[in-house]
Write a structure and sequence with these properties.
mainly alpha; Proton glutamate symport protein; 22 helices; about 80% helix; about 0% strand; globular
Length: about 425
């Protein structure tokens, strides 16, 4: 019996995002990167092309989804109640995230009690001449300099002066602000006039979803290439030397994800296993792409189709949480800063811990589109606020950033889904 294309493609999608397949592909890639480094380094081009294909559809997907959803929301007359729930949920979620990050890092301090062998390994990485040269250049480069955080700079980062420039530069936050304002305005236009716009936006939205599903088919191959090329470039020594920090960050992510999954289960009325299955595609994409924006179609499908939350609400809230609810960045700033303080045996006071939490939260708003060197440099700016040395530690965080990036993306995906389920009304019909 042969499977038709309509039946085979969903089966292929489910197979490509199965946890066993994802983990197996990552392990295969690690083996290839370890034993065949020269042959594995060029494989990074495949993962780069894959991520670029997904990024290609992110902005049109987000803009069309927000405008389309807001337009329908204002016509339904339910916008005030939804926005009234969004702000307190965001505030409570960021405060809880910061406290969990502080508690886990202080209870299990990764920077204390480091043995002499590990300190020697860390010193060797920092003292390497080539790495030191690479460290100086990014620190002096204008592209990666940590921005000065002021109220004015935060406000300016939200308002687009030229929406076409923001779209061409991939500035998601400014594009989101434009889409929200345009969607609110479109919601005030009579239906007889705006019907054609509504149909066009829905066509763009559905087309982007279809493209995202097609692009996800080669995910196992991409995971192998991603893992192999990364291990081939950095090797295992930086990862092992920074194992305590990575382990601490991973522990924080596990705590946050377990709490978030429990919240989703309570709000949806489903079992924990069912919730994990509904989020499986989003988490697999987070691991493969390290980019929460490209996970948006999968997040919308999981919350609306599998968990039965109202689709129009989910389509609006997913881009909002992706752009504004950056819990992964908050806990990264907290954990990295505390790690530096512990390595240098600098015990922070209660007031300094409060300052750290506030600066980490404010800094998260300025991280739209940032990753890698830029995000690490911003961490150095936070350390400077607390008079902590960071220059020598810079290259160490660079070495383990690929691992921290996918952990950070998973945190953002799962906690965003939890926030959306709290904001949205409970499903009327459970599946």
């Amino acid at each position: 019996m042969t499977l038709s294309a309509a039946a085979f493609l969903p089966l292929l999608t489910r197979w490509s995002i199965h946890p066993a397949v994802v983990i197996s592909c990552l392990l295969i890639g690690a083996v290839l990167g370890t034993y065949f480094p020269e042959q594995s380094k060029p494989l990074s081009a495949i993962s780069t092309i894959y991520v670029d294909l997904l990024r290609m559809i992110v902005l049109p997907f987000m803009v069309s989804a927000v405008i389309f959803s807001l337009q329908k929301l204002f016509r339904d007359g339910d916008s005030g109640r939804l926005m009234g729930r969004l702000i307190p949920v965001f505030l409570a979620g960021t405060v809880a995230t910061t406290l969990i990050g502080l508690a886990v890092t202080l209870l299990e301090p990764p920077g204390l009690g480091i043995d002499q062998g590990t300190r020697t390994a860390l010193g060797g990485i920092v003292g390497n001449a080539a790495d030191r040269a690479n460290t100086i250049i990014p620190l002096l480069s204008p592209e990666t300099a940590a921005p000065k955080l002021t109220f004015e700079s935060v406000i300016l980062s939200l308002v687009p002066s030229n929406i076409f420039e923001s779209l061409s530069q991939g500035d998601m936050l400014k594009a989101l602000v434009f889409a929200m304002l345009f969607g609110i305005a479109a919601g005030q236009v009579p239906s007889r006039v705006s019907t054609s716009l509504t149909d066009a936006l829905e066509t763009i939205y559905r087309s982007c979803q279809t493209l995202a599903r097609w692009i996800n088919f080669p995910l196992p191959l991409v995971l192998i290439c991603l893992s192999a090329s990364q291990i081939a470039r950095t090797g295992w020594s930086p990862i092992l030397a920074m194992g305590a920090f990575v382990g601490n960050y991973l522990l924080i992510s596990v705590v946050l994800c377990l709490i978030s999954v429990w919240i989703i289960a309570q709000r949806s009325g489903q079992s924990l296993a069912f919730v994990l299955q509904a989020l499986r595609e989003s988490i697999a994409l987070a691991i493969a792409t390290n980019n929460i924006a490209v996970c948006m179609p999968a997040m919308i499908d999981g919350l609306s189709e599998r968990l039965a939350f109202m689709r129009t609400r989910v389509e609006l809230l997913v881009p909002l949480t992706v752009s504004l609810f950056r819990t992964g960045q908050i806990v990264y700033f907290v954990a990295a800063t505390l790690f530096v303080a512990q390595v240098y045996e600098n015990k922070l006071s209660g007031a300094e811990l409060v300052l750290l939490g506030l600066v980490a939260w404010v800094s998260s708003f300025a991280t739209g589109g940032m990753k890698g060197l830029a995000l690490i440099t911003m961490t150095g700016g936070i350390c400077a606020q607390l008079d902590l040395p960071f220059g020598a530690a810079f290259v160490l965080f660079v070495a383990v950033d690929p691992i921290c990036t996918f952990i950070r993306t998973i945190i953002n995906v799962v906690t965003s889904c939890a926030a959306i389920t709290v904001i949205c009304p409970r499903p009327l019909k459970l599946t």
